Amino acid sequence: MSTFAITFTNFGPYHLARLRALAIRLRHRGDRLIAYEVAGRERRYPWLACKGAEPFEWNTIFPGRDLESLSRLACYRAQLAALARDRPDAVALVGYARPESMASLAWARREGRPAVLMSETQAIDHSRAWWKEAIKRRRVRRCDAALVGGPRHAAYLAELGMSTDRIVLGYNAIDNDYYTERAAAARSSADGRRGLPDRPYFLAASRFVAEKNLPRLVRAFATYRTRSDERSAWDLVLVGDGPGAAAVEEAVEASGVAGAIHRPGFLQIEELTRWYAFAGAFVHPSLMEPWGLVVNEAAACGLPLLVSERAGCVETLVPDPTGTTGGRFDPRDERELSDALWAMANLPETDRIAMGRRAAEVVADWGPDRFARGALDAFDIAAESSKRRRVPVAEVVR
Hints:
Structural class: alpha/beta
Shape: globular
Oligomer: single chain
Low-confidence stretches: 391-398
Number of helices: 15
Largest sheet: 7 strands, parallel
Strand content: 15-25%
Mean pLDDT: 94
């Protein structure tokens, strides 16, 4: 029996769905999964995770602590101690910056164990400083394989020196069935729409931070409303909260259409699925978005999609810019965003329904089992790569 270890900062619904699928596949081949979460809570993402009879070993390194309260050194040392205790046969780490990820990589190299890098970074996410890129290249070269979200993430890792034949897709997955079933149940319930807007509405769900571009969405929506007939105009729902809430509030108050903009706050997924269920379309206007798992959620609920061309998911979930599942737009162009809202709202309902159905079909291939298959492929590639790395130079020469 081989033991595989994987570490996330804090387990939310996405992580648990992926871990369960991976653990089940590992169990079928006689192996086991240890899953570490660094902290029991994370203030940045205050989701609630229910711990049940899991198919993996759930290990919280700092139970009852907020991730933000922990020092980098404490995370590094605690991860090293956990790995020294459990001694897995292979490790998977998220990114190349978090201290627990660097601890996992250091331990794997010291012990001669395969290391899989999980990444959702794309080249356009930030401006790139040469010295930071040099550090990343050194760290990426120490990994044996990678599991990434989509083509853009694979391309960036290749720029950093990872061989393309060691990169596997499938990292960014959610529990599609959960969202599909919950949305269907809400639509069929007599009180499913309780507390929701009476009008059709655009839905956006994200943290309220500058890169999510919500004030520009509010202004674009206000322009859309001025072009629309009052009787048929859609509303806008902004789900979420965060440090940029004041800027969003200011944009709403200045928009002239505040009465048509709804802000239900941060919602756990059980409640969020009701809002997805009755939305006319989903809009994701981020200026910087490594992937955008809320787009997966909306697609699983059968919504047509309007997605920023800077989101890492856009080529996967809106594969046809001409409108099979929705549309893409430049998030920096307020007029283009307003036009996209207007065009979507004015499509025949049958066309929007067809888009939503197609979005659900596309995202169906990006569920937890896609993550599990990708992780296993990456582990197998990493094992071969690690084996070659350990071959003595004399043997390579012979």
